[in-house]
Amino acid sequence: MKCPKCRNTDLKPTKIEDGLPVMGCPDCEGASLSLLYYRDWAERNAPVEQSEAVDADVTVENDAKTALSCPKCSKLMTKYSVSSEHKNRIDLCAFCDEAWLDGSEWTLLKSLELAHKLPKVFTDQWQRKVRDEKIESKKVERLKKLVGETDTTRAVEIKDWLKNHNRKAAIVQFIASE
C-alpha cells in the first residue's frame, strides 16, 4: 500500500498506541487506521483519565488539504472535522472502514480526549455541531470588529443568559423596542 499523501512511499506496519496497529508512512508520519482494529483496541483499553489539563493548544498543521485516495481500495476518502477550534480533518473511506490520520492527528485526538470516541467524529450529529460552533465563532469575531472586545463579551454573556430563559421572547421584544 502506498501513502495517500506522499503517493510514492510504501506504508509500513507500526503502532500508534500499544495494541493499536496501523500502516504508517515513514516520510509524512501519517497512518492508515483500520476501524476494525481501532474498535477492538477501544474495547480492550479503557480511556485514561487525564490528571492534568487538556492541552487545547495542540495544533497539527500538516492536514492534507486535498481529497485523498484510500490506500486500500483507491476510492476517494471523505474528510471529517475534528473540532471547531482546529483545522484538522480525519479522512475516512466508507468502503473499507479505513481512516487516515495525518502526522500528529492521533496526538490531537488524545489531547481533545477523542481517542476513544473516534467513530463519533464521523457522525452527522458531530459534524453539524462542529459547523454550528464554527458559524457561532465567526459571528462573534464579526461582532468584535464592529463593537470591540468588551461589548462583544457582554453581548455573549447576555445571549447565554437569554438562551434558556423562560421569558426570552418578552425580554428580546423589550430590548428591540426603543
In short:
With 178 residues, the protein is α+β, with helices and mostly antiparallel strands.
Describe the structure.
The protein has 6 helices and 6 strands, in the order βββαβββααααα. With 178 residues, the protein is an alpha+beta fold. The chain has 2 domains: 12-122, no CATH class; 128-176, no CATH class. It has a 6-stranded antiparallel β-sheet. Strand 5 (89-93) and strand 6 form a beta hairpin. The chain is elongated and about 70 Å long. The mean pLDDT is 90.
Features:
alpha+beta, 6 strands, 6-stranded antiparallel sheet, elongated
Question: How would you summarize the topology of this molecule?
Answer:
Elements: E1 12-17, E2 20-24, E3 31-34, H1 35-44, E4 78-81, E5 89-93, E6 98-101, H2 105-111, H3 118-121, H4 124-147, H5 149-163, H6 168-176
Antiparallel strand pairs: 1-2, 2-3, 3-6, 4-5, 5-6
